[in-house]
């Protein structure tokens, strides 16, 4: 490989475009050499052209099999991730794949096995690990200066609920939304969950009851190392994207607050006003999206481990399945139960 | 009754002394007319003398039956609360009783029934309801301006674990410590819990495993109104008493942070330092202890409802029993199950 | 002297009452043995009676000459302070005197000389030195861990402008209001000012132009040790009492923010709301008023230096006179100039 | 002009490179068509090549007279700014010029007159106006919702003092550093200063005494609208770049704090640690540098007024001259005095 990574991008939807733009603007050592999208006309073609991506196809296999491509960014629909990972690995490409790899652990395992056999690198797009705030929490815990973790808390709320059409095919709140938080608790605590209990309510959009989903959930959990955890999610926090993490350890506690739009406060006789959190994930995780791209480029070019592995892509799926089962059956679900069923 | 409330105080331990001193210093309309403590010599006698309490006995019934006493402050050991409530009510005294009334709901019910029959007022010492921060959270929720509550979160951690001798007879972490938080979630959400799931770990003092207690717990719960809740407790937060509350509602979120020792920050090349939370409950709830006393005095003198009723004393005990059962049996426990067993 | 300090209180206006109540409630080792006020009837008599002050007179000399009194609290009108200090010192009483001792440095010097000759202790009521926030700033600077102070900043704003009748006889904003901040900068920096420049505007109540006062001022200054300083005052900050201090030092910066009414924040689609600062000096400096009383009691009973000396009472008066002169004459005024004129 | 702005960049030092990179990455409607730098070899040539700038010269007039260039970015040394503005304006180019235009108001006036005659647009690089925090303060004041401004405060401190070689030719702290803050107070208050008084000390590097400069200054000032102001500067705040603004108005106060590296806090028995401010101006004003570029592009392409005018470039120079004179002569200096001398 040359000293520049040649990337083939699969899928030019919102996230694909974001990665393409970030690579163009910020990744000195990477370039988007080719891209594919089933709708590779009109807007998408103009977007690719604007970034100087000359090799644009409607067929993903044009990119996967392109000898001029070193690595794939898989930003296509979730259902295609595992297939493209397998094909890409077999074609000798390193792979960055958006989360989740699949909702079926067996399919994920198959993809991970192929990646391993083919000796390529894989990074999963759990972008929040690159957020400056969460990363600081994790770094403090991982440094050991606070001793063993005792309790981890993650608050994760979207600014507004997605349209019903999206929610209906989202895979449910645990697989669609909490999966980021399942990754986060693992990342922060450095241990695997052994059991989860999930409570869910429909408090925002009653129509989602029709397909058995919830819009407000609380998940309690235990970890192998004895730590306890809790995640609270809401599909709608009207004040903005609420993303906070906290780990209580033996010798102290580390917490991260939201980023705010600005630091100004306005004090009047009515009270004190401050800015709201940055609106949504594109604002809050703007730099993190850039940084995960740089980290992947660095891992491939310098033959390092990727900072989010295939295993990191698999474990949160087990947690989501266990949480879903817990909510539906009204009982705690051990991770071993879910792993046994599906492996 | 005159326009001054004449109080008889049962128990001059730490909390009894605190109430006595607060009444003396801050309650213009109340006076400690009599007190009893089994150890009413030496230090306790000097303390009483210093406050001008001339009528001091070793026998609580001297106070309970004292015709010169309008109301009792029951600050004796937990095991005696229900008995003294019943005796006091029968003697026509209004009653302020420290929490919990009893650990057996049947005994509490008997006491509450007697209070009702005798037509006296009863206030339970859930002092945190009077904290300026938690109260603000509750007032905002109760005002309805944020719409229905969706998720309630309570973090409650002691600065250090109590001695083993204390823990051994404490009734367990749920009855001894979480009970305040069970009261708090009811207070904040304005609804009754229907089910709880509790996880507990022993991460601070391994010796408590001997009597089946935990020192680190997470409790998830559902409420009648659909809201979800979570409490996290630790017997030791080395940075101080950590008492935070939060309610996410339909139209917004209200959160309270800790009070700090001071507002100063020190910025150096090493970083920015700020003050820790106030050390423990006597510092944090200093004003709240005064205010609950004033509220009780006001309720009795002006024939208002007390702000923390006998029912408020009973419900958290059910929650503690359910949490204990959930942790021991590894399953969610409905409140109805606990109520059915014990009523 | 016995192990209890017997205090004679001169003046039972707002501040006199506050001190009397604090001594009664919080000073175990002090008691108000006698008090005098020209209006010692009605409300004042009832107030004294409620605190158990049996010896109440209309003549201050009844208290000053009372052999049963160890120390005086001078809370009468400013014009009487120096006279009462002199008389009290000659009568062998230790003295706590409200600020300022006088607006004429010569009169202050005379009082201080008498105090010195008579060998009694004197503490001046610069209560803000006892505030937990400002004290933390000062302690950090005084500890030397941040090296030499370079810049000191004090923001001090009242929540609302006083009535014209008060302002007219207040001695002007520098002597009435900034004097506290002149004390504060000396306390924080640990050095004497050598020169001040003051700018003033009338932006709140145009009627004060009639007597040459300002309601909004900025004072810049230099200190002997090379540090620079700035004070900004306003007679009206509609959001409440704004009291902040900051010292930039060689190795870092220490800053204190306001105390707030509570720590709750409310996040909605409109923004984030927080509590205002505590309303005015009785709320903000509530504990500081208690602590200065305890410090005085301790200094007298245990023969220590008082924490705010007579010299501390004099220097801010020079600074106020220099600031006044600077504003009126439109030029920097050296402290030596003011001291030369008046000594 | 086409719908894309063709920019000629003069000077590819640190700021020139920053603008070039920002235009390339973020300005969809602008492109760097040509550049000039006296050292246009080696690193600079590689930099230009990396951004696709093919037209690179050592002679600025190659760019100024390039018919293919619509607008100039003047990022060369200060001494050349006025000359290039005049030449550029005569060549019909719109101009973005780094601050200050010149240290001699007469030269600035000549440049502004030429700009006016030639009918081109001019924007001066006071980048802090585009900072999200300061801009919020200004927008709140300018909205009028808080009424008239009474007091403006600006704290502006560099993380570390520049090398002596830089300081010696910097023009002095007022012209080099405070000039940004002079622009800021004008921006925030919306009025012109009428008089300033400056105090300066040498507390960081004693060697600067040799050329009469100061490293720690406080500047107090009055505005036409009656408002008062204060700026405090330090060449070294070891904890990082300290940039705070505050305006007290008739009906309230608006303040902006620093941006921090992250929002995490670490609480231990030793205290609470938080992140420091972002290190220096490239970090703190990163987005602001982008936004001023976009604003200039928008102003030119859509024929709007630029948000920082030539007059905005001139007034702070007067203020810097007056402050310098005040510090040297130990007296307040009216702006009219400085304007009279030099116009």
Summarize the structure in words.
Four copies of one chain form a homotetramer. The first copy, chain A, has 343 residues and is an alpha/beta fold. Chain A is 40% helix and 24% strand. The first copy, chain A, has twelve helices and 15 strands. Chain A has helices at residues 14-26, 42-50, 60-64, 78-90, 105-118, 132-143, 164-168, 173-189, 281-284, 286-301, 310-329, 335-342; strands at 5-10, 30-36, 56-57, 71-74, 94-97, 122-124, 149-157, 193-201, 216-223, 228-234, 242-249, 252-256, 264-268, 271-274, 333-334. In chain A, the strands form three sheets. A seven-stranded mixed β-sheet of chain A has the order 12-11-7-10-9-8-15. Chain A has a six-stranded parallel β-sheet with strand order 3-2-1-4-5-6, with helices on both faces. A two-stranded antiparallel sheet of chain A has the order 13-14. In chain A, helix 4 packs parallel to helix 5 (105-118) and helix 11 crosses helix 12. The model of chain A has no long low-confidence stretch (mean pLDDT 95). At the B-D interface, strand 13 and strand 14 of B face strand 13 and strand 14 of D. Strand 12 (252-256) of chain A pairs antiparallel with strand 13 (264-268) of chain D.
């Amino acid at each position: 490989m040359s000293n520049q990574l040649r990337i083939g991008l699969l899928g030019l939807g919102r996230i694909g475009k974001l990665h393409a733009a970030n690579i163009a603007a910020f990744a000195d050592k990477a370039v988007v050499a080719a891209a594919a999208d089933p709708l590779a006309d009109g807007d998408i073609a103009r977007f690719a052209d604007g970034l100087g991506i000359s090799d644009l196809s409607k067929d993903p296999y044009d990119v996967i099999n392109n000898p001029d491509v070193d690595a794939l960014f898989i930003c296509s629909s979730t259902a295609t991730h595992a297939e493209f990972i397998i094909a890409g690995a077999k074609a000798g490409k390193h792979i960055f794949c958006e989360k989740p790899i699949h909702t079926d652990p067996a399919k994920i395992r198959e993809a991970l096995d192929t990646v391993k056999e083919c000796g390529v690198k894989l990074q999963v797009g759990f972008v929040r690990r690159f957020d400056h705030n969460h990363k600081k929490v994790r770094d403090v815990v991982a440094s050991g200066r606070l001793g063993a973790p005792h309790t981890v808390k993650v608050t994760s709320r979207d600014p507004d609920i997605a349209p019903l059409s999206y929610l209906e095919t989202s895979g449910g709140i645990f697989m669609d939304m909490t999966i980021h938080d399942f990754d986060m608790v693992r990342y922060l605590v450095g241990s695997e969950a052994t059991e989860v209990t999930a409570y869910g309510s429909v408090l925002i959009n009653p129509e989602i009851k029709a397909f058995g989903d919830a819009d407000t959930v609380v998940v309690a959990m235990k970890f192998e190392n004895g730590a306890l955890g809790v995640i609270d999610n809401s599909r709608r926090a009207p004040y903005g994207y609420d993303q906070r993490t906290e780990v209580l350890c033996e010798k102290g506690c580390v917490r991260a607050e939201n980023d705010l739009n600005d630091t100004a406060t306005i004090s009047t006789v009515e009270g004190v006003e401050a800015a709201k959190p940055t609106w949504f994930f594109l604002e809050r995780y703007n730099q993190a999206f850039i940084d995960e791209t740089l980290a992947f480029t660095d891992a491939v070019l310098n033959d390092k481990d990727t900072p989010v592995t295939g295993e990191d892509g698999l474990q949160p799926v087990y947690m989501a399945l266990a949480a879903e089962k817990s909510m539906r059956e009204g009982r705690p679900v051990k991770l071993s139960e879910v792993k046994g069923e599906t492996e």
